[in-house]
Amino acid sequence: MAALLTCPTVKAAARAAGLDESTIRRYRQDPAFMAEYERRCAEMLETATDNAKAAMPPAIDRLRGIIDDDQQQPQQHIAAARAVLEYGLRLVEANDFEQRLRALEERSRK
Question: Which of 7, 15, 40, 99 is a good FRET partner for 22, with 20 to 30 A between their CA atoms?
């Protein structure tokens, strides 16, 4: 399981676990194994998302500091401003998408 979660391919996972690829493929046919695999994948994604969320405020503060620092070169101001705008727009779009998805899910439950 650990090898499948950390290796990019079944072949690499089999090599890391010391198993044949066919053994890994058999495991992947087991519904209980796949349910646990999917649960762990979702958990890893949630952890990574939480870590990214935690890193955002200091990153934005750092970029804002570059923008506000008159000693920085114009290229650095432009790069920092572009990053703030670009990622800000992505966050707005992602949030909008999530809200729309929740609204659709609520409607489908009724």
Answer: 40
